[in-house]
Amino acid sequence: MAPMNQWIKIKAPATVANMVCGFDILGFAVNSPYDEMEMRMVPYVENGPKIIIINIDQYNLPTDPEKNVAGAALNALLLEYEEQFSNTTIAFEVKINKLIKPGSGVGSSAASSAGAVVGANYLLGKPFTNDDLVRFAMNGEKVASGVKHADNIAPCIFGGVTLVRSIFPLEIIALPSPELHVTIVHPQIEVKTSDARSILKHQVLLKDAIKQWGNIAGLVAGLMKKDYDLIGRSLEDVIIEPVRSILIPGFDALKIACKKAGALGGGISGSGPSIFMLSKEKETALAVEAEMIKLYTGLGLAHHTYVTTINEKGVEVIN
Ligand code: HSE
After folding, report:
1. Less CB within 10 Å around the terminal CB: N or C of the chain?
2. For this structure, is 15 an active site residue?
3. Is the CB–ligand 1 distance for residue 18 below 6 Å?
4. Considering the entire predicted model, what is its pTM?
5. Phi, psi at residue 46, to the nearest 5°?
6. Domains in the chain: how many in total?
C-alpha cells in the first residue's frame, strides 16, 4: 500500500467504442488525447467525505461523488474494499484535468472512471484485478449515460483492442492488432450518449443481424490474422450507424472522402459526434485528416482532429 498523502499522477487514454460493427462490445484505446489526474489517499475523518473530487479544468463537472463519474466508480471500489478489508479508515482525493472534452464520443467519462479506479487500486497495493476495476468503473458509465457498458472502460484499463463478450458475468478478451493509424475528427456539436441511445431501434431484422455478426467475426479475425483488407471490409455497421449518422453533419460524404484517401474504413466513434478512420500507414492517416479538415471547413463547422495510434498500455500510473 502506498503511504498516506503521497500524490500519484495518472494518464487515462481516450477510447473509440463500438469499432463500427461491435456496438457495446468492441473498443480500442488511443495514444492521444488523454486525461491527466492526480490522486492520493488521506486518513478518513469521521463524518467527513470518503471521496473528494477537485476539477482543475474548465468543464465544471459535478464534484458530488454520486454525480461525478470518477466518484461513482470510486464509491463502488471503496464499498467492495471495505467489505473485504474491514476497519478501513481511508479517503481518496482526486484532481481531474480533463483533456478529453466531455461529450466528444471518445470515452471522456470512461477515462475519468477508469483512471480513478486504476489509481485507487495502485494506492491500495493492487488488491483488485483489471476485471474488478472494469466492474467498478462501469458505475461511472451508468452516471454518464444511464447504462453500464464496458466498451470504453475495458480498452481504457487493458489498453489495445478489447472485446466485451459478456457484462454479466464480466468477460473481457484482449485482442491483438496489427499496426494501425487512427484519425479522429471531433465536429464541435454536442451529441449526448443517452440521446444517441434513445433513438436506437429495439429490434433488428434477421438479415441485418446476420450481416452484423459476419462483420464482427470478420473484424476480430482480421485483427488476429493482421489482414488489413479483411479489417477494412468488416468495418461496416448496418444496425446502429444508419440511425445515428443523421445526428452528424457531413457523415456520409466524410466517409466516402476518407476511404478515397486510402483509409481502411471507420465510422462513428462511440455514440459520436467524433468520427474515426483506420489506416495502414501514417501518411494515409494524415491524408485522411486533410479530408476531414477540408469537409468541416467547407461546412463551416468548428472541429478538432487527432492523428494517433492504438494505445497498448491503458491507464498509466506515473510517479
Ligand atoms: N457503446 C456505447 C454507445 C458507447 O455507442 O452508446 C458510448 O460511448
Report:
1. C
2. no
3. yes
4. 0.96
5. -55, 135
6. 2
